[in-house]
Amino acid sequence: MSAYKQPVSVLVVIHTSALDVLLLERTAHPGFWQSVTGSREDEESLIETARREVGEETGLNAALYPLRDWHATNVFEIFPEWRHRYAPGVTQNTEHVFSLMLPERLAASISPDEHRDWCWLPWQDAAQRCFSWSNRDAILQLPKLAPPP
Description:
Elements: E1 8-16, E2 20-26, E3 33-34, E4 36-39, H1 46-58, E5 67-77, E6 92-102, E7 115-122, H2 123-129, H3 133-145
Helix pairs in contact: 2-3
């Protein structure tokens, strides 16, 4: 196991069939709202990464709900303040997009080390609140890509 994070991550947009979206506010950056994100660990599959991150960040069991791989990726520059977590010279991350559809708005159980708050918003409002362009763009795709209720 490497001491460095892999520059491969997942973005999981958690939503209801009515397209309400769960967002989390980062503890280290108040005002930075996002969906579930996280890096792949060891040799786990991307779907395993998505399930693990949902559980770690929200307390929800992703195995109980439809988790969909969008087969979409985003490549972005890693913020300089987080590059020390990656091997020397790594500056870009490849993010794989998933969605998790819940039957209704469920309460999240967050870790205060990582997130300070959570909320449910209609998809348009959630997209506007996200600090990340890739998260915003994924949420804006929900009406086209999420399965109908």
